[in-house]
Design goal:
0% strand; elongated; single chain; mainly alpha; SAM-dependent_MTases_sf; 6 helices
């Protein structure tokens, strides 16, 4: 999503008085997706979702900017389990179709393969 603030302003139009808006955003460290952001960055590809709302402060600014009264912003870790290499590669292959990964999908097939290999090599070497 290229315009998170715009999306939030749009979502606000669907809220009733006293309604609640809940959303999920990656916070650092955000696991395999963070690794993908780093791999893409080395190839000159920027994935903005890794920095738009990665802190509570940024979330508060986005929500306030959308005209919402911010009652609370909290951080919860969804999972801290170790991911097998094959599952990590499956995540890579599935996420390429996610809108947040559009810059990776828009890269040439050979660039995508280089990034996938980079992602995989770090997993195999135990670096991540």
């Amino acid at each position: 999503m290229s315009d998170v603030a715009g999306a939030l302003r749009h979502w606000v139009t669907f809220l009733k008085a006293g309604g609640v808006l809940a959303f999920e955003t990656p916070a650092k460290p955000f696991g395999l997706s963070q690794r993908a952001v780093e791999v893409a960055a080395r190839r000159g590809i920027h994935l903005a979702y890794g920095e738009v709302a990665d802190t509570q402060g940024k979330c508060q600014v986005l929500l306030s900017g959308a005209g919402l009264e911010v009652l609370s912003v909290r951080t919860e870790f969804a999972d801290t389990a170790t991911v097998p290499v094959q599952a990590a590669l499956e995540l890579w292959d599935q996420r390429v179709d996610h809108p947040a990964w559009a810059p990776i999908k828009d890269a040439t097939a050979s660039e995508r393969q280089v990034m996938r290999d980079d992602f995989n090599s770090k997993r195999r070497s135990g670096c991540y």
